[in-house]
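Progress against Task 2.4 (sequence-to-structure conversion) is shown through the following example record, which the project officer requested during the mid-term review.
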Amino acid sequence: MKQQSIDEMYMSRCIQIATNGLGTTYPNPFVGSVIVHNNKIIGEGFTSEYGGPHAEVNAINSVKNPELLKESTLYVTLEPCSHHGKTPPCADLIIKKEIPRVVIGTLDP
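Structure tokens generated for the chain above:
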């Protein structure tokens, strides 16, 4: 399978997961995230209710073996935040966990 097709498949799963937050995240968008290691999903998450953890944080926290994060790809429907708000920046956590590849569905305006 071509890389683009693989990325599209996992992004599609992110979109499915995102809908779990529909109606609870306002004023934040509802976002989905998956973490993939060796073509296997090892973590999933969606944005919690307003003020709670974002999709990337929930996906990272769902991974049973955090050491695998250093060899994984994080997929997320919206570019990880890089600012302090009600929660710390998701981008900082991704860097801290040394996740080498991030695929986003859209840029955060």
